[in-house]
């Protein structure tokens, strides 16, 4: 599958089959993450692969909305960053997160990004504090996101190339249209 087709077919998956994912597939997703570019080559990201069902359930409660489906995912990759070395922490971890979503798609798996950084929790603590406590993440690492993954039980259809928002692309100066493909 070429990159455009891959991007067209990647849709967020929030319902997963109860079917384990082979280690080789997870290895390739993590390989992809470790190949991600980072600011000044600092590679500040680190990843916690979670397959333990009890921990997935605990992590799914990190915030009141948009994370409950993690309890039924085959795995979650928790994306964290070392604040001691990072120079563009949000960007570096975001790139690695998206790369894992694309690699998941290529492996025939579904995925969904669960935002952690800057999100609250239904308890007094933040989503990041909750994740930090569940996984014993040290204080000098920031928790960015969790990528939930597994075989999709439900998935939206691919994006239509004829519906792309070409009016968001400008040519030579803001406001001048780029000729639509
Ligand atoms: C930075 C970011 C944060 C997101 N956070 C969540 C989230 O916390 N929970 C969730 O269910 N989906 C989350 N998503 C998924 C988006 O809702 C989804 O990508 C968007 O609706 C477009 O749908 P698509 O992924 O099928 O193209 C997030 C996506 C991004 C890029």
Please write out the topology:
Layout: H1 3-9, H2 23-34, E1 45-50, H3 53-59, E2 75-82, H4 89-106, E3 110-115, H5 127-135, E4 141-150, E5 170-171, E6 173-177
Antiparallel strand pairs: 1-2, 2-4, 3-4, 5-6
Helix pairs in contact: 2-4
Structure description:
The protein has 181 residues and is α+β, with helices and mostly antiparallel strands. The protein has one domain (3-177): NADH Oxidase, CATH 3.40.109.10. Helix content is 29%, strand content 20%. The protein is built from five helices and six strands. It has helices at residues 3-9, 23-34, 53-59, 89-106, 127-135; strands at 45-50, 75-82, 110-115, 141-150, 170-171, 173-177. Strand 5 and strand 6 form a beta hairpin. The longest helix is centred in the middle third of the chain and has 18 residues, at 89-106. The mean pLDDT is 96. Bound molecules: flavin mononucleotide. Residues 11-12, 14, 66, 112-115, 156 line the site of flavin mononucleotide.
Radius of gyration: 17 Å
**What best-fitting shape do the alpha-carbon axes yield?**
globular
CATH homology superfamily: NADH Oxidase
The number of helical elements comes to 5
Instruction: Work out the number of β strands.
Output: 6
Domain count, please report it: 1
Ligands bound to this protein structure: flavin mononucleotide
CATH class: Alpha Beta
Q: What is CATH's topology name? A: NADH Oxidase
Mean pLDDT: 96
CATH-level-2 architecture: 3-Layer(aba) Sandwich
């Amino acid at each position: 599958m070429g990159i455009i087709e891959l991007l067209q077919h990647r849709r967020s998956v929030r319902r997963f089959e109860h079917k384990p994912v082979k280690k080789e597939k997870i290895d390739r997703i993590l390989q992809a993450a470790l190949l991600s570019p980072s600011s000044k080559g600092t590679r500040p990201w680190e990843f916690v692969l979670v397959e333990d069902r009890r921990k997935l359930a605990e992590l799914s409660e990190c915030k009141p909305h948009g994370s409950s489906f993690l309890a039924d995912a085959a795995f979650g990759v928790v994306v964290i960053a070392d604040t001691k070395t990072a120079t563009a922490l949000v960007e570096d971890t975001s790139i690695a997160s998206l790369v894992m979503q694309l690699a998941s798609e290529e492996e025939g798996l579904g995925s969904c990004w669960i935002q952690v950084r800057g999100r609250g929790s239904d308890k007094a603590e933040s989503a990041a504090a909750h994740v930090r406590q569940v996984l014993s993440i040290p204080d000098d690492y920031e928790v960015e996101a969790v990528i939930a993954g597994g075989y999709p039980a439900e998935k939206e259809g691919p994006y239509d190339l004829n519906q792309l928002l070409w009016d968001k692309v400008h040519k030579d100066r803001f406001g001048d249209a780029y000729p639509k493909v």
